[in-house]
Amino acid sequence: MRDTYARAEKIVSTLSTDDKIRLVSGKDAWTTEPVDEHGVPSILVTDGPHGVRKQASADDHIGINDAVPATCFPTAVTLGSTWDPDLIEEVGAALGRESRANDVSVLLGPGLNIKRHPAGGRNFEYFSEDPFLSGKMAAAMVRGIQSQGVGACLKHYAANNQEFFRMSVDTVVDNRTLRELYLTGFEIAVKESQPWTVMCSYNKVNGEHADISRDLLTDILRDEWGFDGLVMSDWFAVSDRALAICAGLDLEMPGSSGAWDAEVKAAHASGLLTTAELDLAATRVVDLALRAQNDTGSSQVDPAAHHELARRAAAAGTVLLTNDGILPLERTGSIAVVGSFAKKPRYQGAGSSLVTPTQVDTFIDALRAAVGDAATVHYAQGYDVATGETEEALLTEVREAARKADVVIVLAGLPDSYESEGFDRDHLRLPDGHIATIAAAAEANDRTVVALLNGAPIEMPWADGPAAIVEAYLGGQAGGAALADVILGDVAPGGRLAESFPVSASDVPADRDFARHPKQVQYREGLYVGYRFHDSAGVPARFPFGHGLTYTAFEQTGLTVRKTKEGYSVTVTVTNAGPRAGSEVVQVYVRDPESIAYRPEKELKGFAKVHLEPGTSQKVTVRLDRRAFAVWDIRAQEWRVEPGAFEILVGASSTDIRARRTVAVAEGEAVFPSHGPSAFVATDDEFRTMLGADIPEVPSVLPYHRDSTTEDLHETATGRAIAAIMTQEAGKQFDWEHADASTKRMFDANVRTAPLRQIAMSSESRLSLASLDRLIKLLNATSAKAWRARG
Ligand code: BGC
Fold first, then answer.
1. Cα of 197 from ligand 1 centre, angstroms
2. 59-79: per-residue pLDDT in tens?
């Protein structure tokens, strides 16, 4: 047992019930309650994940106002594309140092939800569509942050894969899919990096809010995976504080000015909440605060060095999607740079992760500095940076600039207003103005390169037009310089896609039920997410998972697979047979050709990134343990391997398999048959079979309850009147004048979709939960009367 935990237990044993209840809720938006008489300090937590967002004002949790400056590292989508855990660990350590320098004890990240649909508004904050890759990257980030004596926080646990009504939607997902896709990343990260904290999500999972799920928070997280830290709520995610403590939710964040205290006391008095359960939660809060008082790590921050690290990480996560040989670019002649993003880059996403950067590199400045007098650089705006729209005059300018130039570089992508925490994207297209700008440039000059700044996949019907496409994602504050490094070949593009780019959103099975119904989302596609779908269905992605070109040519030869005590050791020789230095990612997939349980065509089970100078080779070994072959057995409720033949596929993307070997796995167990959706989206019957239960009814709006949303209130006349007052009140605290489009949209979504209980929780004691209940009763009475009157 940790020394701090033993001390925490002793301290808690001396506290009164009231004190313990006080302890298990935050003090305010970002800090915990102290226990002064025992020297237990109040500690500070902040967002995360790709930079320290220490908010200047204590009550601003969605980042409307500026935070203290900190390095804005590349967002998780870019970091995920590096496939380089060592580099992520380095970034994590830098985040840890900046946290320490700002007296931050826990950094709220990494986020590792699975990208179930490319339109997920917060996909930029997550690593991948694949749980193995997500788990490995998250573990590396946690190790890095915690190496500096600062806690990390895995979020958002669990099955929070859309923003639409994220605070109340019920994710209906079968047990096998939950385990194999949505929990595995968390499991890997917990087991491999022992994070200090985990954050539960807002949503419900199979009918139960995550904060009160004993199954998720205790049975799986602690008893099965061995998590020994603290679980905190997402901000205002607590749906029932007493039940949440029973379930294993230790800390309510932010504090709710004692909104729940009376109910927690009553639950304790009635025996529903035991003293042991309350003590456990309080002990973990004290333990966390004591753990944070260490002298590990450093608080010395060299902003210039961190900026350089951010630049290196951005280039390492930049994915070269297509290239007819135009890249790397010669530094001669005239270069037309097109698109407002070249001067006003999009380099991070909106919402709680928004960092106030220490500096921002723009692509055009970086390019000009790098080419010096060797080339001339002209600029044409192309489109409006905020709206993404264009007009004829701007397009004429683009055509003229493109015609005169030897080469054109168009920066396009998604404006802030398109992707953010709080809402999902309505479609996967670029703004019309960006598409028109690309078309104008490419028609005027066939030496046109498109560089994309966006946080998630887009549809690219125009992909055959440009001579090269570079996916730079949201590269953080040094993203502009990193893009110039890559385009000029000073650094080889190091990224490989950690997600599939579908040809069209309608190809994606999850599209049938994504961000559609406020109350429920059904994961009828089961395991068929991302490449698991594309490769099983034979529906090609435009750019497959794992894809990424570079400026040299790699060979993977001499595959050998050796049986070891733990499983198999897979070895391949990687040779850089091309003219330049670069890096290759060896990807190891496992395929089960015959299985009693339905399985995707192949699944990623190992990878390794190597950097090689031209003409050199390196042997790369990837180890596969038993789990690499296992499925979640829905009857035994454990991981089981069905003995028989398995194929081990090694290659450079999920569709670029260079070699394969078949192994006969002898040890294993009988696996219970499980059936998936035969046509990739389950029919009612198939979904019932997957769930092992009836498909739950969509919860009705009436009668109202604490989980009803402001939007629900619109069902009745009195409700509408109250909703209008609430929206107006919330709006008063909002800085409409200075907020940008995405912040406004996020604010709107938050107000519409927040459960009523949050009003009491955030009211600073002005509205108690008991008063809220009376109000709800009144609303229900008037709606019943109205209903009767309607006859
Ligand atoms: C987000 C979390 C974040 C928290 C605090 C929530 O709305 O979902 O990711 O850490 O706010 O800002």
1. 14
2. 555 555 678 999 999 999 999
